[in-house]
Amino acid sequence: MAYISFSLIFSSGGYTPNNKSETKTVAVPTYITICPRKDGTTAKTKRLNPRRTTSKSTLLPLKRKLKASSSNFSSILPKFHVGGSSYHRRPSSLYSDNSSNSNLQLVTRSNYTTIQKLSRTCSRMYPICHDDRLWRRFLYADFHSVPPLIKENALTLERKKGITRLASSFNLKLYRNHLKLDQRWLTGKGHQDSIYCLAWISKDLLISGSRDKTLKIWHIPTSKCIRTIEDEHDGSILCMRVDKENQILMTGSSDATCTIWSLPQVEPILKLRGHGHNVLDVCLVNNNRIVTSSRDHTLRVWDKDTGAELRQMLGHTASVNAIEPVGGTRVVSASGDSTLKLWDIETGECIRTMEGHKLGLACIKHCDGRLYSGGLEGRIKVWDVETGECLDTLLGHAGMIRSIDCLNGKIVSGSYDRSLRVWDVKTGACVLSFQSGHSNWIFNVLMSGTRIVSSGQEKRIMILDFSNGLSPLCN
């Protein structure tokens, strides 16, 4: 195979003629060098564009040689993404500023567009840019997909104006389809940064909160963003919760405030101020009290109607990352200090402390009389709330468990190991594991009767619909 190098000659700046006899336009010459061997011997150089010269001046070109072959094409453009995303170290905070992989899809789109433009520069570049081996390499690098090998004689050729071209490129089509699929994951005008939290506001409407300080409302059947809400929070939207009657939405932010919204209008009605740091979780208790938890190590109780702060609950020695109502006037909190605490919000008393995790906690969920907790250890513990006894430990994740939801005898968990797992409540067995849906940390998961919805650092929302093709179904 011939080894091809490109010599691109650029002018150092614009040229202004001194008199009318001088030419006003200057061509930028482009050369292609074909070498039988990599050592450059017996090289042949051909100029691709016609020569146009000026009458009184010459350019002193700056040459830059770029070497490439169809098996190592990424060296033409050094900024191409040619490897899978790396696994980052865990941050000290649940809300990391590390976003080095967040532009992966943008880079992938740029690769495709740039190569397509390059294929149109000359007739000789066209077959190189449509080489199936090249696109097979990019499929694996950008989408971790390994397509079947296609024999060269199976490719259809066409002849136009004396030039032989590939009429179709199987792997290029595969790459283009993967790119379109990846764009559909964005479901319309998506968030510009990590998506930290999700909540259902009706059967087919989902709301999301992001590090970009916006809320977005999504219509799930059409995968469209139908509304974007801006300028309410001055920081990242870290948490949200909807009451059981779908009448109010509560959002907490890194601006240390919590906003109460009316539903279904999604209009702000109250702003809760008092925390000294990020509001990390929020819930409604007994339909009249709002409880928030914060990085300032406290829980605070608020009047739902007036927004007045009623009391603070102290006891944790690290960020209170999650809270969950467990019936009556009680809530359970999960902290970075590795403990769970059961509180009475009317008295502010800590009723019980549950210990068993060795590392910090990130999430909790109460379901069917059991409490499920997860965190840095990558394992889920099952607790009896009334006795504080640890009943079971669910093993399987290889990274921090960031979010848990449960419904109808099933638990779903999302982890920094980029996987979603579904567990059977009765046996504790992992019945499903989705390893390839996310390419970075998962921040939030939700369940409904037919769907699992998840979001994370990638700025996109993934929906797994188990009811596809099943109609009718009971609501």
From TrEMBL:
UniProt repeat feature WD, residue ranges: 188-228, 230-271, 272-312, 313-353, 354-393, 394-433
Domain spans labelled DDB1- and CUL4-associated factor 12 beta-propeller: 189-233
Pfam family, one: WD40
Entry keyword Transit peptide: no
Keyword field: Repeat, WD repeat
The keyword Repeat appears for this protein: yes
SUPFAM superfamilies, A to Z: F-box domain, WD40 repeat-like
InterPro entries from the UniProt entry: Beta-prop_DCAF12, F-box-like_dom_sf, WD40/YVTN_repeat-like_dom_sf, WD40_PAC1, WD40_repeat_CS, WD40_repeat_dom_sf, WD40_rpt
Name assigned to this protein: DDB1- and CUL4-associated factor 12 beta-propeller domain-containing protein
Source species: Mucor flavus
